[in-house]
Amino acid sequence: MTTRVTVLTGAGVSTGAGIPDFRGPRGVWTLRPDRARLLEIDVFMNDRALREEGWRDWREHPAWHSHPTDAHRALARLGEAGVLEALLTQNIDGLHQAGGSRPADVIELHGALGTTSCMVCGAGPMATADVLARLDTEPDPRCAGCGGILKPDVVYFGEPLPPAALDRAVRAAEACDVMVAIGTTLTVFPVASLPGVALDSGASLVLVNAEPTAYDRYADEVVREPIETAVPSLVERWLDA
């Protein structure tokens, strides 16, 4: 019988592509705790100066120049082989799709940087790159239709996760034989509850993370090796099973 694998990825899976994580020893918010405010929805909606600063931060985000790693490409093979139940990601960089994963397999729980929508009339999604191109003359870009505030389709602090995405993620956690969590501290809820859902449904749990997590004691396997080498090895094992 084919082993069904559900994958959950966090920021650590993209650090090898040059995208810093947030909470690690050299994380963006570890080094600059003040930057977290730029992702608070109330701040974004009500403070124009910080909203403009946030847009400038998005323009400089390394995701625009990053490329998929061996880990991203290996996970795409699970989908090609029909082993993957779903690829759940907390990342907004689109590197799973760029690495060959089918868009239908990828559930972006924290949204995606690649598109932008209007917070007033809901217009969109429009390409974020096109919005960023306006910043030199329009530092606080507005909706062409209603003049409302535009925001990248990223889940900010204070916003709910997309309900449809979260529902799909829960069902994928319930349906798998193995859940593997890669490069995530498993501290941000409700996503951090998904390994527990998988365990309660009888799945085994594999953790690939440089630092300990609250789930280590429940895992069948904990891997501390670098993600770029550990993930391809795990994928080979499941494909051979």
Order of helices and strands: EHHHHEHEEEHEHEHEEH
Principal-axis shape: elongated
Strand content: 15-25%
Task: Summarize the main sheet.
Answer: 6 strands, parallel
Pfam family, one: SIR2
Organism: Demequina capsici
EC number: 2.3.1.286
Protein name: protein acetyllysine N-acetyltransferase
List keywords for this structure.
single chain, 241 residues, three-stranded antiparallel β-sheet, 9 helices
Fold and architecture overview:
This protein is 32% helix and 17% strand. It is α/β, with parallel strands linked by helices and 241 residues long. The termini are close together. Helix 4 (70-80) packs parallel to helix 9 (227-240) and helix 7 runs parallel beside helix 8 (194-200). It contains 9 helices and 9 strands. The model has no long low-confidence stretch (mean pLDDT 93). A 6-stranded parallel beta sheet has the order 3-2-1-7-8-9, with helices on both faces. 39% of the residues are buried.
Note the topology.
Blueprint: E1 5-9, H1 28-31, H2 41-46, H3 48-59, H4 70-80, E2 84-89, H5 95-98, E3 106-108, E4 111-118, E5 126-127, H6 128-132, E6 150-154, H7 163-175, E7 178-182, H8 194-200, E8 204-208, E9 221-223, H9 227-240
Parallel strand pairs: 1-2, 1-7, 2-3, 7-8, 8-9
Antiparallel strand pairs: 4-5, 4-6
How would you summarize this macromolecular structure in one to three sentences?
Helix content is 32%, strand content 17%. It has 241 residues and is an alpha/beta fold. Helix 4 (70-80) runs parallel beside helix 9 (227-240) and helix 7 runs parallel beside helix 8 (194-200).
